[in-house]
Amino acid sequence: MGCTPEAFLQVLSAPGTNFYHWNLCYENSTMFLSDKYRRGRGCRYSQSGRSSPQNFNRIIADLRVDGMTYKKKRPYSLENLTCKCGRSESVSAAANEEENRTWINGIAMDSDISKFELAQQLKNENGAVFSNIDLGTPGAINSKLNGVGDSFEDEAWDLLRASMVYYCGNPIGTIAANDPNDSSISNYDQVFIRDFVPSGLAFLLKGEYDIVRSFILHTLQLQSWEKTMDCHSPGQGLMPASFKVRTVPLEGDDSATEDVLDPDFGEAAIGRVAPVDSGLWWIILLRAYGKCSGDRSVQERVDVQTGIKMILKLCLADGFDMFPTLLVTDGSCMIDRRMGIHGHPLEIQALFYSALLSAREMLAPEDGSTDLITALNNRLVALPFHIREYYWTDMKKLNEIYRYKTEEYSYDAVNKFNIYPDQIPPWLVEWMPNKGGYLIGNLQPAHMDFRFFSLGNLWSIISSLATNEQSHAILDLIEAKWAELVADMPLKICYPALEGEEWRIVTGSDPKNTPWSYHNGGSWPTLLWQLTVACIKMNRPGIAENAVKIAERRLSRDKWPEYYDTKRGRFIGKQARLFQTWSIAGYLVAKLLLAKPESANILVNIEDTELVNAFSCMLSANPRRKRSRMGAKKSYII
Ligand code: GLC
To answer: EC annotation (predicted)?
Structure first.
């Protein structure tokens, strides 16, 4: 596309590549939930279904959501919505018979009744499927179920299936940790949105799509549920951090029970943190589902399209911010407690960018969403520029910062954020390799958080938020700093740990986040899958293979812990859960991807050349990137 203003405009108002007509989308969609259902009591659909059956499957409302009009249909008949006979198919008529087959502990179940009965039999108190097998013995599940116990992967699959959570007799997610010997389960008995991503990917890569479709559609119903904390409700479009399936007596019928989905948006979570990453992960998983299964009918549904738009609307809302990065509170992502990552942490920006690109691919053009698409495209142009330019650090950049002038009051300051060179931490001067670099953890006025955060850097590679050169440099750094970042257990969540006074001030003396433990420099096996995707994308799978080999030696023996402690990751984490599902699933996804690297494309975002062109148009129109008020307005608001 030529570098004309028209071309730029065209890019900014183009949604994605998947154009289709509204009517087509409408006809193909099989179930539309009214706002009433989306915001009903839990996911107790039966409670909301008060209308007459003949009203079902007809459009009931043109709802205006965030300035856009959406047509919605009522869901299924009352009978289908009660848990006694509710089925995952009720939220997706797109599935064919083979796809509908459910797997329970490795057994393919064709009949819904037997599915339900077996699920009930196997269901433990937490809603997870749990057999009588002794989980305490590595390899035990595998040997007792399959008769052979010789492979870590087989064991991991059995454990993953054992962590499946059932709603109305159908798998809907996986429990965060499934250790029968742990009495202090806290909220690890819930299905976490972010934790389910590697589980979902493992199932997708194995060709088992049902559970992922069911997860996507049911969590959608939880979106923006009217829960409040001290009289305040979360923003519309927010996805919960986690949810729990509760089985409760059916109202008016003592002999029956129903399952209710109970989401947590952070109002019960430790620290009351809102999970900004949940919606972003949901979009990323939705795209992966479509790409892997070939079933685009889910993303084309009107309720799903609405869900995507609600997440985008929330993320793209105007605020007081001067930066294109997303402004969040501390602990709004995988690190879900105070760790000094408030402001514009890299992890959120990388997931945000990936979600924006994924949404652009999936959104159907529709009257009324032009503004949203324009805002999305604007962000897609501005965000990578900001991150690549201001978050990047390597020897050269570090030396530039070292020589920064400060207190520059002007529109074209070099040191725009007024970073005082003294902020460069002594450890970094020694640590920065000659070859390699990384994106810093956070950037705020007069503050650069120089810690290396693995997830943010890996996901910047995967989403192409980092340039090609930067992506290679990040992997160079991981190789160069292997002894610190990988060591005895891949992968450190961040490096280095906060210690002493800094730990006291930043974490609030958090006894769980002591130096080199948990979020504060602990090692998290689940990060293996993200490392693997990034390495495959950059055609350097050998790095991930080496990391997997290290993890493999210990994970099964150590009962699949949540995280490891100490500088080299030598100890099982002090308070780490055992049989942590995303440690298990992360390992499986890494193995599956290494065996079939081309599958990684379900997660990777390739840099959009139209956006790159639009970006260079923007720059060439203003080569010195002068921040004149008029210029900035012209460049960004199109
Ligand atoms: C911990 C992790 C969080 C995860 C949760 C459940 O709180 O920090 O990222 O989602 O456990 O596993």
So the answer is: 3.2.1.26
